[in-house]
Amino acid sequence: MFAFLRLVLTFVVILALLYAALSLHMRLRYRARLRRHLDAQHADGDRALLFREGMQRYDRSFQRKLTHLVYVLPPSAILLIIYVINFL
């Protein structure tokens, strides 16, 4: 039982690190793309306000929500493999 709990805890920690890395990577890519877009537009007005609005748009985006699948897909794949091996 303790071995199983240790496995689950290790798996959760690995998924949390993977999620943090993926989330940070996606956010930095969006920031860079937003800066390039604002530079190309020669955005007049308050540049900081436009940048803040763009990042708020990213925080509400579907792309950001898709990163939560890091917690869903690997355990689902493992459970599917266990089911197929044992019961089919």
TrEMBL record:
Transmembrane is among the record's keywords: yes
Entry keyword set: Membrane, Transmembrane, Transmembrane helix
Membrane-spanning ranges: 6-26, 66-85
Top-level taxonomic group: Bacteria
Keyword Membrane included in the entry's annotation: yes
Protein name (Swiss-Prot/TrEMBL): Uncharacterized protein
Organism for this UniProt entry: Halomonas sulfidivorans
